[in-house]
Design goal:
Elements: H1 9-23, E1 31-32, E2 37-40, E3 43-46, E4 50-51, H2 54-60, E5 70-72, E6 84-88, E7 90-101, E8 105-109, E9 120-123, E10 128-139, E11 142-155, E12 160-164, E13 175-176, E14 181-189, H3 193-196, E15 214-216, E16 227-230, E17 234-240, E18 249-253, H4 257-263, E19 266-272
Parallel strand pairs: 2-6, 8-12, 14-18, 15-17
Antiparallel strand pairs: 1-4, 2-3, 5-6, 7-10, 8-13, 9-12, 10-11, 14-19, 15-18, 16-17, 16-19
Length: about 270
């Protein structure tokens, strides 16, 4: 036999009042968010407790969010059965990197007693170093945005000084900034008939005397007249063309066949003098 316990009159009145307000639309009763999912940290968690807002749903499955995290829909949005709540972890941090500072190349005219035939490096340059602090934004552990902030010079660059008989031929401003580079396959030639054919006259296509400091190029890649710097070779002018010189290929001029053979053929980072 089941004994029925009478509900106190006060409790009956409270329950009746709550039901009346809910039916009138003046009070929202918590809903059992059955089937509601919380997608966070690469997993999906089901909400099985009665909740009415996104904030309560996250608390029910013990998910905490930081100030920068993104929650969709918002924390105070109502939640209904079958809704999906997504949490994206956002982290912002300061990251410091060391960045190389390229050195300048300063071209100076030759002086009395120091008048080299070819452009000569009289002071070797050295790259500098600076620390740059970036503000980095991570979404779900992956970097999505980076903005530079504070810079601190650790080591000043030392310029490279080049002495030349004709500094104007190497650069109108006398300074090479080292920004524009081009990776090319560099071969070598001399003005003689064994390199240029039996009809060679020692002149380039634009009338200059072939030899050291003259480079054959593909004009579609490097315009004729461009001033260049080739590591291991020196300063030169693009002033000739060749049937086999196509694309990222250049031919470096030398004054003798043994010197051309000594260079051979190699990949270099050709730099455009500004």
């Amino acid at each position: 036999m089941v004994r029925l316990t009478a509900m106190p009159t006060r409790a009956l009145l409270d329950l009746a009042a709550v039901s009346t307000l809910a039916l009138a639309g003046l009070m929202a009763l918590p809903c059992l968010a059955a089937g509601t999912q919380v997608v966070v940290d690469g997993r999906s968690v089901s909400v099985i407790e009665p909740v009415s807002t996104v904030r309560e749903a996250l608390a029910a499955v013990r998910v905490t969010v930081d100030r920068d995290d993104e929650v969709s829909p918002g924390l105070d949005a109502p939640v209904s059965e079958g809704d999906t709540i997504r949490v994206r972890r956002i982290r912002v941090a300061d990251v410091t990197d060391e960045v190389k500072v390229p050195y300048r190349i300063i071209i100076r005219p030759a002086s009395k007693g120091n008048n080299p035939y070819h452009p000569t490096v009289t002071q070797h340059g050295r790259s500098g170093m600076k620390k740059v602090t970036y503000r980095v934004k991570y979404v779900e552990g992956r970097e999505v945005e980076r903005s530079p902030g504070v810079e601190e010079m650790v080591r000043e660059p030392i310029p490279q000084i080049v002495t030349s008989r004709r500094p104007a031929a190497l650069g109108s401003r006398g300074v090479y900034t080292g920004v524009r580079t081009l990776r090319v396959l560099a071969s070598a030639y001399d003005p003689g008939p064994k390199s240029c054919g039996r009809f060679a006259n020692g002149r380039t296509c634009n009338g200059l005397r072939a030899g050291y400091g003259i480079i054959a190029v593909d004009p579609r890649v490097i315009p004729l007249g461009t001033k260049l710097f080739v590591p291991g070779y020196g300063y030169a002018v693009a002033a000739d063309v060749g049937g086999a010189i196509k694309g990222n290929r250049v031919d470096l001029g030398f004054n003798s066949r043994p010197a051309a053979f000594q260079w051979g053929k190699k990949w270099v980072e050709l730099r455009i003098v500004e």
